Amino acid sequence: MTEPATIAGLDPITLGDALRVAGSADFARWEDQIRRTGGCSNPVHLTGWTLTKDRTTGETLHHYSTEKEPGGRLRIACGNRRASRCPSCARTYAGDTYHLIRAGLAGDDRRDIPATVREHPRVFATFTAPSFGPVHNRPDSGRCRCGIRHSDDDPALGTPLDPDSYDYAGAVLFNNHAGQLWQRFTVRLRREIAARAGLTQRELREVCRISYGKVAEFQRRGAIHFHAVVRLDGAGGPEDSPPSWARVELLEDAIRRAAEHAYTTVTVPASGDQPARALRWGTQLDIRPVRAFGDGSELTEQAVAAYVAKYATKAAETTGTLDRRIGELAELDRHDVPDHTRRLIRACRDLDRLYPDRRLWAWAHMLGFRGHFSTKSRRYSTTLGALRQARADYRAAEQAQVLGLDDIEPDTVLVLADWTYAGHGHSPGESALAATIARDLQLNRDTAREALADMEGAAA
């Protein structure tokens, strides 16, 4: 049971509510529900029942109802990927992303991805946005153009040296079209690889497949950029060896040329006071081979997977914007949004009437970006859906064992259910207690991970 002493320091209203919850007769069951959600900060509340019957005899094998649950409700995890909204569910999402990316690098027998995929050419590439005006930074020389040596946590980093001349419109239009720019890049990449192999694109499809997994990240200046694992496979995907001519060097050269090619450009027409624009990737393109674990390389499979997973739970709120849609500009004052981010949001509002089909105001909280934060090609590896289903199947099997139903064949039972949405979230005291539970669970995970790492190190 969570000790009330662990939530000391709360304001009187929250503390009083927490003590009320902790002192209730059904607190143990409430705590069990929250632990099962992983300490979710905004659980979904359901009311209803399930009934499991034997298909042949009609015998009731199990009946569950929320009538006897705390508040007459069952609480389930919200599943939000954003760490700013629910750290607990975001950790689960990051873990799934880690396994998805790593499976495409190291293989996973449980998901029919052979370990031989490690022998395929693969690189980790970072695609950045172009310049929209000079900003405060930390160059190799150590001194910014403004003459100051900024610390790593200086809030001035990423903000323009001259806000009045900074191209805010160009910045949000780039964010808004970044997904299309990536799509054009992937098309051009296939052409570049085919040309280097001396094949037509149709012939290339018969011997080689390009697979990728990527994640978006916002730079401090508020511009989106992509981190991507790009891999060459045989025609069948990860289980097929790529042709002999497929080498890391060929892949690196093809990526660089595809990113720089004129085809990899998105044209935005002129409208109102805005000129026509040709949006392209920035000149800073970083491409590095991914090495197998244990070869002494810093950029290992585990490091890449962890890096991608880290940014899969973040969004534009890292720049100081809101993590939800903005109703009116007055909200920016109430939440003390930084001036640079505020100007980007205003640019979204102003451009919305000029390019209504781009829905810039609807995505102003994302500084114009409207794509998915993490995506992959069809045959890169497993899917998030498959990972979630595996987790659901495991929990279902665990529950069946507890109920003594694990020996019954699934096709011999009939499950009836009726669920109704009944709200979401916590009271102030419940929120404080849930945060304590989430910290305890995270501490347990960290301890287990460190112990496993120690065991692997000793074995090596």
Automatic annotation (TrEMBL):
InterPro entries: RepSA (IPR046828), RepSA_streptomyces (IPR048241). Pfam families: RepSA (PF20199). This is Replication initiation protein. It comes from Streptomyces marispadix.
